[in-house]
Amino acid sequence: MALQFAKDGYSNILAAIILSVTFCVIGFIIDHWIAYVLYCTAALLMAFILFFFRDPDRDIPAGKDLLLSPADGKIVFLKEVDEPEYIKGKALQISIFLSPLDVHVNRLPASGKIEYVKYNPGVYLMAWDHRASSMNERADFGILHPSGIRVFFRQITGFMARRIVYHLKEGDQVQAGKRFGMMKFGSRMDILVPAEVKVEVKKGDRTVAGETILAKINAG
Predict the structure, then answer these.
(1) What is the C-alpha separation between 149 and 31, in angstroms, rounded?
(2) Are residues 160 and 105 both part of a single domain?
(3) Is 116 inside a domain boundary?
(4) N or C: which end of the chain has fewer CB within 10 A?
(5) Catalytic site includes residue 111
(6) 151-163, pLDDT tens digit by residue?
């Protein structure tokens, strides 16, 4: 399998290359023990950036009724809430925390039509803080599944993550498991479905974007 990187990270990778080359050139010019510090810093910087922006292929499960994880990470919340924006009623919220070591490319949790897209500026609480869902900078999305079930999900920035990227607009027809954006440097993803949908994961489980089955949408 060929190593590939997230397209949304190309500018960050280029900036890291320029900075690393600059460190190496300065180290070569000064010809001092500090040069080795610069060389090591350049190597570590490039290693981290390339690792962070990796974008591996995923084996997407077949089945139109599956709700897939949109993010790699760990489930930190699994609870019933009121969702007034898109589902407009009782919903089950699944919150996934992404550490800086997780793949940060996001994938669509369900197939259907994008009916709702909204960007919300906000603050930068720690991503595991329960208030992050409503107070942090975030992007909200709603998918109408062919079954009529509404799936609501949001990208949420954390204390370190200061940028979210998405390529969705209202009216798009989408397929579960496909890439749609990313969150940079540690963040959180919320997925909400009507309360009657049976979830197949629990708090503390690890998830893999595009592979982990969170629920079967038609199960009630």
Answers:
(1) 65
(2) yes
(3) yes
(4) N
(5) no
(6) 999 998 765 555 7
